[in-house]
Amino acid sequence: MNKTCLLLFLQGLTIIASAQPFASWTKTELKLNNGIVERLVQLPAGKGKFTTTAYHPVNGDFYYFTDSSTDFRFEANNKIYSGKSKWSLKNIERYNDLNAGDGAAVKLLSEDGKIELTIQFLLYPASPAIRKSLRIKNLSQQTIRLESVDVEKFYVTEYSSTTFSWICHDYGRRRVLGPFDGTMQDALIIIHNSDWQQGIVIGNEASGAMKHTSVFWDERTIISGLTHKDARYPFRKYLDKGEDFTTPQVFTMVYNNHKDPDEILNTAIPDFVRKYMGIRLSELKEKPTFVYNTWIPFGQNINEQLVRELAKSAADAGMREFIIDDGWQENYGDWVIDKKKFPNGLKPVFDYIKSLGMKPGLWVSVGSATPSSNVFKAHPEWFVLDEKGQRTNLHNEDAAIFTACFGTGWYDYIKDILMKLSLEYGLEYLKLDFTVVTSPYRFAKNQTGCYATAHRGHKDHNESLFTNYEHIWRLFDDLHKAKPDLFIDCTFETMGGLQLIDYAMLKHAEGNWLSNFSGPEAKIDLRIRNMAWWRSPAMPATALVVGNPEMQDTAWDLHIESLAGSLPIMLGDPRKLSARDFSKYRNYADWLQLMESRYSIMSYRQDLPGFGEPQETMWDGFQRLNTETKKGGIIGVFRHGSKETKRLVTIKYLDPDKMYIVKRMNGDIVMTATGTALHEKGFEIGLDKMYDGELFEISQQ
Q1: What is the per-residue burial (b if ≥16 Cβ within 10 Å, else e) of 437-458?
Q2: What is the pLDDT of residues 109-151, one digit of tens each?
Q3: Which residues neighbour 235 within 8 Å (Cβ) at sequence distance 6 or greater?
Q4: Under CATH, to which class is 606-700 assigned?
Q5: Which helix (H) or strand (E) holds 200?
Q6: CATH class for the domain made up of 281-603
Q7: Angle at 406 (CA atoms; ends 273, 547), nearest 5 degrees
């Protein structure tokens, strides 16, 4: 297939992108090159090594890597296999994915004949990302125990690489010096040398507590993959004779000519995630812009009459999605509708919500059951066992709930329930909650996973950690196959860590209920904006569901403006709103929907130049500009206790030669200027209140 070559501008580099394969090879070398980055891999001649010999941007210098990196490492029955072991080359094939990825799959045979290993590389048009996974097949007669898998393992050069590099961890936002051993929060790490203006991005697509990335930890290396066997939450996978296992992918980016790592954090990383990773949000035709949830202040004290009243008021205020939270069911586990609260069932309620122009949603604890539930009584063998062989609650110490194991018949059981709710009842949003693998609220490492040895999904506790995550993702995928536009909100509790979100989740669910803040005044808005800043742009902002601001709070308008940088969601009691407030709410709702229609703002978010992490006594802000069309978007600017009453605002990522109009929400024009002028000179904004904010539209003229 031939295409006309396109001249593209990326990261200050002019490159040529074409339909030519991104991988080529000889008998001794694999070459990966898409015009932006190049990686050379030594292939085994006879029996020999498989090592990365060069990895660098196509243009300019790059000083980080040595000329021989181990490339990968894993253990099978305690035997170490790595790129520096002896392998024989079986074949190389061109390798593709459904998101424009192109590369190569290299199949190797271990010297002992027990392992067939396929290393899979993918590159993407106009992106510095190289994505990699390992497919490990057991050729031996015995079951092998796979552990300590490093999908990527790079050796770095001496002294300057390790001494003068910032390690930007925790979604690329926190800067430390090495050695560094990552946690479940480290789906993305950037290693950056400001003297060289160069760095490496490491994106780990493993699930929750199973991901592991370390930098200069035990040796002068960067490794990324699955947790090691001595880790707090160790990865393990058993492979019977003839079975194979494909690891989660790791993506890397090498770059130069960047003074600050935030430059690539705001550009190449979100571009790759949005366009090529295959996240659910990118597949969703209509993204939510304004959500209501019943949890605060009502908790489980809900009923049909209350929900209908709340739905009418929420619709009058312009809400687009209406989520019924906990309390609709008789118990956890059976998920039977409480007919005392909802005598007509939920279907008429959902139909009423739809008649008001909103999408109905529902909360379900996806892996929990009470001891009195029929499902627990009928199938106690479906539930997690602790190390003493007793049923347990992984979520917290509440003995009134047990946690189900997804490596049992529970999988099919809960799938049938969720399918019925989605297909027969017409649900369009599912909030799936509570612990299934690890808990944000229990801290002993033995209070995780499942210790059963008779469950079909795992042979022991360590294997259960990984496989239960994988079963959750498969469940989400099955739901999406049946209902492609279903919005799944996988909470941080289901993810298994406080305020945890990662790339594994994003490929199977659209959103993540990230945290809970509450308070009527503007003080909570700092935490809302901090949460959104902290995890974006590494994570898509629309996936960040930050509760629990209430609609009747005294600072509700500032809540909405703050939440406009993530996914706007409100709780509370909309029935208490005045006529004036209903009108103001509707203005916000209609404006946000208009901005999404014009610019697809819910697919983008960038840092606002000159405004850093939201802090007390400071100003902060965000951009949500469409960097593909460059037609515009929105910005938000906030004063949080600062003594300064005015700030200069500049804007990046606009077309430098086009004219843009900056407008307030009411349509008043602030200024008209070129993209260059807005970036270099900007405009001044004044906020008289110590705690205040304002949203603006940026539109191409």
Answers
A1: bbbbebeeeebbbbbbeebebb
A2: 999 999 999 999 999 999 999 999 999 999 999 999 999 999 9
A3: 147, 148, 149, 210, 212, 226, 227, 228, 229, 462, 465, 466
A4: mainly beta
A5: strand 198-204
A6: alpha beta
A7: 50
d(CA 25, CA 48): 17
Q: How many helices (H) and strands (E) does the chain have?
A: 16, 41
* Cβ contact 262:269 at 8 Å: no
Give the burial class of 129: count Cβ atoms within 10 A of its Cβ; 0-12 exposed, 13-18 middle, 19 or more buried: buried
Q: Which residues contact 682 (CB under 8 A, 6 or more apart)?
A: 648, 649, 650, 651
The CATH superfamily assigned to 19-278 is alpha-galactosidase from lactobacil brevis (2.70.98.60)
Q: For the whole prediction, is pTM greater than 0.85?
A: yes
Model pLDDT, residue 523:
85
Q: What is the pLDDT of residue 19?
A: 60
- Please determine whether the domains at 19-278 and 281-603 fall in the same fold group of CATH: no
| Lowest-confidence region among 445-449, 490-494, 515-519, 538-542 | 515-519
| Cα-based distances in Å from 331 to 125, 225, 393, 439, 493 | 50, 39, 15, 21, 19
Rounded to whole angstroms, the Cα distance separating 356 from 131 reads 45
Q: Is the pLDDT of residue 679 over 80?
A: yes
Over 60: is that where the pLDDT of 1 sits?
A: no
Greatest pairwise CA separation for the chain in angstroms: 80
Three-state DSSP string of 498-523 = CCCCCHHHHCCCCEEEEEECCCCCCH
Measured CA distances, 461 to 437, 446, 466, 625 (Å): 11, 9, 10, 46
β-strand pairing of 429-433 with 487-490: parallel
- Evaluate the omega torsion of the peptide bond into residue 537 and state whether it is cis, within 30 degrees of 0: yes
Q: DSSP for 359-400?
A: EEEEEEETTEE-TTSHHHHH-GGGB-B-TTS-B--SSSS-TT
Q: Where are the beta strands (DSSP E) in 125-171?
A: 129-138, 144-155, 165-169
Mean pLDDT across the chain, nearest whole number? 96
**Residue 355 burial (10 A CB sphere; 0-12, 13-18, 19+):** exposed
What's the confidence (pLDDT) of residue 18?
Answer: 40
- Neighbour order of strands in the sheet with 487-490: 487-490, 429-433, 359-365, 321-324, 291-293, 569-570
* Spans of all domains in the chain: 19-278, 281-603, 606-700
SS3 call for 303: coil
Can you tell me the mean pLDDT for 442-467? Answer: 97
| 614, 652 Cβ separation under 8 angstroms | no
- Which single residue is written with the structure tokens 């190389």? 92
pLDDT given at position 518: 86
Neighbours of 562 (CB within 10 A): 31
Residues 6+ apart with CB under 8 A from 662: 669, 670, 671, 672, 673, 678, 683, 696, 697, 698
CA dihedral 225, 237, 233, 393 (to 10 degrees): 140
Q: What end-to-end distance do the CA atoms of the chain give, in Å?
A: 38
CA distances to 85, 246, 545, 647, 660 from 565, in Å:
48, 36, 11, 19, 21
Q: Is the dihedral of CA 420, 573, 530, 565 positive or negative?
A: positive
